[in-house]
Amino acid sequence: MKLTKTILATGVAFSALATATFAHAEPTAEVLHWWTSGGEAKAVSALKEDFEAKGGKWVDSPVAGGAGDAAMTVLRSRVLSGDAPAAVQLKGPAIQEWAEQGALADLNDVAAAEGWNDVLPAAIQTIMQYEGDYVAVPVNIHRVDWIWANPEVLAKVDVTEVPGTWEEFNSLADKLKAAGITPLAHGGQPWQDATIFETVVLGVGGPEFYQQTMIDLDEDALKSDTMKAVFDQMRKMRGYVDADFSGRDWNLATAMVMNGDAAMQIMGDWAKGEFMAAGKVPGKDFICAPTPSENGYLFNTDSFAMFEVSGDDKVAGQKLLAELIVGEKFQETFNLLKGSIPARLGVPMTNFDDCAIKSESDLKSAEEAGGFLPSMAHGMALRGHLAGAIIDVVTAHFNSDMSSDEAVIRLVEAVELAKD
Ligand code: GAL
Fold it and tell me: What CATH architecture does domain 144-299+376-419 belong to?
């Protein structure tokens, strides 16, 4: 009896101590991300500042490289060596892959306290959960299928609007080329080739074809004449980039449009973050319009997953970060800088520009029409090895004189191999 009491008393003392330690632990988070360009860095600084203002200690781990390929390599080696960062920029099916490995911590208590089930769209909730547990938090909704254009450059060939069909796109690009202007600013990196490719898949084939090929990996659709037409259009696109495109970072391609060295760029709306960071005004210094997209919308939601870490300070840091990220004020501040729109429902759009307003209204109409689709190029539609199989073929085609017939054969083969 006495012994039991002692044990109980010790237990109480221990848990009181744990609570006290937890309460006093300085919330600390090492954050692994790839936001290093001008606009991206401004946006991530907003998160850091908020976190620090709430007493958090931010340990910055940026890994440069658009779309995060390099960051994901670093992540794998960190986890393998038993040294996972607390918070990692991670998206789409990759969240499920890491959760299956048992690498992610659950955030259910923060989710319940903050009412995430009521403030996040159902589709986004699903991406953030593994077997019903919240393991990640969304920061935004980026749209991928955009054209960013310099109106002054378009004016040189007497054009005031961004083309609405791929035929119009080609005739404008031919006109620009004839006038000695680079039609398309592009960086030859696989993910950038894939970004253009998926907008062409959507535009040439329509939303249903995108669903069949980029999500369902339907063999008949992958080897169809429509897919050949997609590669034909990609061959045209290759003719519209400048000679130095190879390896160029995406933000340098954005700068070409900004500086009048090229007319247009096809890129997600993180490109808008670059224009804004450089003080450019939408509708005046640059224009935004969806790529010819048949009323579809390719979305790309950035999110942070919390990895299993030990230490009260780190766990407290993860919870604080998660709470802040989904918060209404943060969703506004961050997305104004990043070029995206809030992932949280009900954030007022009053301070957002016309590109963001268009993104929001197109999202709603695409959702109603079944055209709200996850980006393949940005890791939202497929697991890494499957997306990688497609992207390899797209890049091999873009950087050679491969015919569309051959590209389609290779695409089917690569996807079949990756599926096994
Ligand atoms: C995307 C990411 C965006 C942007 C872009 C370029 O994959 O979702 O937030 O950073 O890469 O790095």
Answer: 3-Layer(aba) Sandwich (3.40)
Give the distance (Å) from ligand 1 centre to CA of residue 67.
Answer: 5
Q: What is the pLDDT of residues 70-98, one digit of tens each?
A: 999 999 999 999 999 999 999 999 999 99
Rounded Cα distance between 398 and 407, Å, is: 10
**CATH number for the segment(s) 27-142+301-357:** 3.40.190.10
Q: What is the largest CA-CA distance in the chain?
A: 95
Q: Which sequence spans correspond to the domains of the chain? A: 27-142+301-357, 144-299+376-419
Distance separating alpha carbons of residues 36 and 51, to the nearest angstrom: 18
pLDDT digits (tens, 9 = 90+) for 316-329: 999 999 999 999 99
pLDDT tens figures, 260-293? 999 999 999 999 999 999 999 999 999 999 999 9
Expressed in angstroms and rounded, the spacing between residue 224 Cα and the centre of ligand 1 is 31
153 pLDDT tier (thresholds 50, 70, 90): very high
pTM value surpassing 0.70: yes
Report d(CA 205, CA 193) in Å as an integer: 18
Residue with tokens 């990996």: 217
Contact 300 CB / ligand 1 (< 6 Å)? yes
